[in-house]
Design a protein that fits this description.
Layout: E1 2-5, E2 9-12, H1 19-26, H2 29-35, H3 43-61, E3 65-70, E4 76-83, E5 92-97, H4 106-122, E6 126-132, H5 136-144, E7 148-153, E8 162-168
Antiparallel strand pairs: 1-2, 2-3, 3-4, 4-5, 6-8, 7-8
């Protein structure tokens, strides 16, 4: 199901058919470096990951991480969307792109559209985002889309404090 369309991208719900892409993304060196190894090493594990994370979030909240595909050729380039984590009070913006598709403006384009979607469709008054201290590229992107650094947070089961950014929408 298509959720968001931009000039170059379509953000759509993920399905179990996206398992090969999810397997590639979760084992991309950038993902492992900044987000950690999720231990997803087979198509079957990727399918289960989609079911237990993406599909579960759509079912529970009506939003989640979307598969970002290049409009011209339909090739998945990353994920971007809204998450509701038990450990954060607010909905947060999440994104990750395959290394080979980074530095092409896809993250910016998808993130801007996702913030607008959260504000316009779900009427969120505030959206946050978290990123590792070592991930300066994500921090720069969050600032470029209008988010402001708020504070450091330590999420349950994490050993590293994360930067929390936020954007508040004025009515």
């Amino acid at each position: 199901m298509k959720v968001i369309e931009t000039e170059r991208l379509i953000l759509r719900w993920g399905t179990e058919k996206d398992a090969p892409f999810i397997l590639e993304l979760l084992n991309d060196p950038t993902w492992i470096h900044y987000l950690g190894d999720r231990g997803i090493k087979t198509i079957e594990q990727a399918t289960e990951y989609i079911s237990s994370s993406l599909l579960e979030m759509y079912k529970n909240f009506g939003f989640g991480l979307y598969i970002v595909v290049h409009k011209e050729d339909g090739i998945p380039v990353g994920i971007c969307g809204l998450l509701k984590r038990d450990s954060l009070e607010d909905v947060d913006l999440g994104f990750a792109f395959l290394s080979k598709h980074q530095r092409k403006g896809y993250g910016f384009e998808a993130a801007v559209a996702t913030l607008k979607y959260g504000k316009d469709f779900f009427d969120f008054k505030k959206i946050v985002a978290i990123t590792s201290m070592k991930n300066s590229n994500s921090s720069k992107l969050l600032e470029k889309i209008g988010m402001k650094y708020d504070r450091m947070v330590l999420l349950p089961h994490d050993q590293e404090e994360l930067r929390l950014y936020k954007i508040e929408f004025i009515q």
